[in-house]
Amino acid sequence: AKEIQQILDDKPIVSEKQLQLWQWIASYYMCTLGDVMRAALPSAFILESETVVSKNNLKNIDESILKDDEFLVFEALHHQSSLKIHDISNILDKKNVFPVIKRLIEKEAISVEEEVYEKYKPKLVRYVKLHAHFSSEKALQELLNDLSRAPKQREVIMTLFSVSATTKKPVKVKDLVNVSGASSSIIKALIGKNILEEYHIQTDRVQYSGDENEATKNLNEYQKTALSEIKTAFETYHTTLLHGVTSSGKTEVYVKLIEDTIKEDKQVLYLLPEIALTTQLVSRLQNYFGEQVAVFHSKYSVHERVEVWNNVLHKSPKAKIVLGARSSIFLPFNNLGLIIVDEEHEQSFKQFDPAPRYHARDTAIVLAHMHSAKTLLGSATPSLESYFNAKQNKYGLVEITKRYNDVLMPDIELVDIKDKLKKKCMKGHFSDRLIEDMTETLKVGHQIILFQNRRGFSPIIECKTCGHSPQCPNCDVSLTYHQYRNQLRCHYCGYNSAMMQDCVACGSQDLDNKGFGTEQIEEEVKLLFPDYKVARMDLDTTRGKYGYEKIITALEQRDIDILVGTQMLTKGLDFRNVKLVGIMNADNMLNFPDFRAHERSFQLMLQVSGRAGRTEERGKVLIQTYNPHHNILQQVSTNSYMDMFNEQMNDRYNFKYPPVFKQIKITLKHKDYSRVETASIWYAKSLRQLFKDYVLGPESPPIARIRNQFHKNILVKIPKQQSLPKTKEAIIKINNSFQSIKDFRSVKVILNVDNF
Ligand code: ADP
Ligand code: ZN
Ligand code: ZN
């Protein structure tokens, strides 16, 4: 034990309930409490609680020169040994306390080291707006005409409009630079010409500046029924699943529940997959609830996250509703009434690396329990886990089977690629059927989404002479060709090298592209439809805080006719003008080696399809496949969730997979193959002594080496009637004996519960 140097906080900044939840996470997901804390506490929080002024800073002065607020702080220092930002805020009952500290320093009432002051000083944030003399329609038109000779400047003005229209907030110079792609010198020029006006707001964040809040929408009959069914279900169940087809208006139902909850002065947590946290949804909620909505997002700065943390902790009216990605389950709620988990089937609610490897949906349910709050899970394609729980009567179940406004579900058609190839009706990866429908759609001015679930130009380069394909030196995978940079890249470790001219194995120049990704589809579309604007949305094009937003805005404003993209396209976006969705190849997702591959393919395809025809006119979806008779494809094309559920559940029973069995995966890693092999055999043998046939492996995963580490997996299946805590205890015991064996000490062990 070490000496206590200083007591940082008078009151705990972490509540008992939080600790209780974190302990649950550590024990359920088999990690340390420290792992959980590292994920939970924003690091700057520690900063916030640091002392800024202490008694030592006090000087002897004539108090009469102090203004009231200055005096309050000065006097407080005589009674308390030190003050933190938070304390000073409380004393003065305002947030921005820096001007007061500054004045106290200037009057030499206190002294604070330069760096301490600098550290806490809020940064000035630069904003721009259009100069007031362009407020009339006419003046604006003239300005835009004038600027036609300066297209870059014109572009900046246009971007300014679109950003402020979508976010309904003042526009930061930084954001304008990011979204428009213009250099800051162009913005400077516009300010110099008195077209743009620069101003500063000296708070750490801009407040929501919307007009009066919009009234929430009136629900239609289906929504009303769903709402009252949910309320009834909540009388019996802690958790209820809302299964509503895409565009059935689930969000509006959530909104009514949120309204009720905040009326009772309780907090609401609205969980979404990271990527679905778009400005679209944020502004939709802000229109209804204004400043009461706080957003918690990993792309936000630590300071922004600390602000949300404090607002939640102090039950501030500014955080009655927290809209956040998975890590928002760690916030210090103290009065939670409702948790909504939207798109609950989404894989990204699960954290894979580093520990805690928790599932935010499942943790949210536990969190709600602790607060006697309710959880609503929502999805158009629920996970088998949640639907199974509903069927088992553990959750309530409410369904909406109709789209809002009687919009029809899209017409889904399967296109047989094998047949098309035989009849020579394929151009590259496009069937004549798809080209035909695309032509029709574009002709009437509608937009198209093409879905391809691989990024890169062509995943694999293969030598036609010797069959060699270039491999990553650190991982057991082939490198992916990225045409944009003319590079070969590893998607696992980021290794990259220039594309070679000849085969490294035999010197042949006959190199072939195998497989295809978003980049290649984009290339082909551009050739097929040269007169239309094509864009691509995948991990490569959406890096950075604004990459994703830029593409969404462009699509909304019809600056894109055809959007090619990956998984990212599936997330709850609402594009009114998209009438055709093409799924380029259904087979590579169906054939993925994972017991959830069929369930996931069903979810993905229905979610992408849901982007088509969200207004009166019926949307169209074309799915290209080598295997049109595949059950999953039949179920997708007839929108038969129940058929999918029953068939998949049958497999899960037969092969003892979740949700029928629980499972824990143990991964061992080492740079030396024989060491990891011996270690994993020892581990599996010890497990088998206890769990017999329910242990599988050790096995090398399909990609056996990543970042120069060899992997071995062992799977433990746990029947529902077997105690999960006892099983975990036993595994931990084995793990401890394992760690105490000298030869195995350098082997890394990763425990993963439920989803992986
Ligand atoms: P889901 O979340 O189920 O996919 P949304 O909540 O996004 O569906 O609703 C689909 C569309 O229908 C949205 O554009 C939404 O604004 C509109 N909508 C839904 N319910 C109503 C309502 N009660 N009144 C007016 N518009 C509605
Ligand atoms: Zn070769
Ligand atoms: Zn690699």
Task: Give the tags.
756 residues, alpha/beta, 7-stranded parallel β-sheet, 19% strand, globular, binds adenosine-5'-diphosphate, binds zinc ion, ATP-binding
Give the SSE map.
Layout: H1 16-28, H2 33-40, H3 43-48, E1 51-54, H4 68-79, E2 82-84, H5 85-92, H6 98-106, H7 114-120, E3 125-130, H8 137-146, H9 151-167, E4 171-172, H10 173-180, H11 184-192, E5 196-201, H12 221-236, E6 239-244, H13 250-263, E7 267-271, H14 279-289, E8 293-296, H15 302-313, E9 321-324, E10 336-342, H16 360-370, E11 374-379, H17 384-391, E12 396-400, E13 411-416, H18 417-422, E14 426-427, E15 430-431, H19 432-443, E16 447-451, E17 460-463, E18 480-482, E19 487-489, E20 496-498, E21 511-514, H20 518-528, E22 534-537, H21 547-556, E23 562-565, E24 578-583, H22 587-590, H23 597-609, E25 620-625, H24 631-637, H25 641-654, E26 661-670, H26 673-691, E27 695-699, E28 705-706, E29 709-719, H27 724-739, E30 748-753
Parallel strand pairs: 6-11, 6-12, 7-9, 7-10, 8-9, 10-11, 13-25, 16-23, 16-24, 22-23, 24-25
Antiparallel strand pairs: 1-2, 3-4, 3-5, 14-15, 17-21, 18-19, 19-20, 26-29, 26-30, 27-29, 28-29
Adenosine-5'-diphosphate binds next to helix 13.
Protein name: Replication restart protein PriA
Catalytic activity: ATP + H2O = ADP + phosphate + H(+); Couples ATP hydrolysis with the unwinding of duplex DNA by translocating in the 3'-5' direction
Cofactor: Zn(2+)
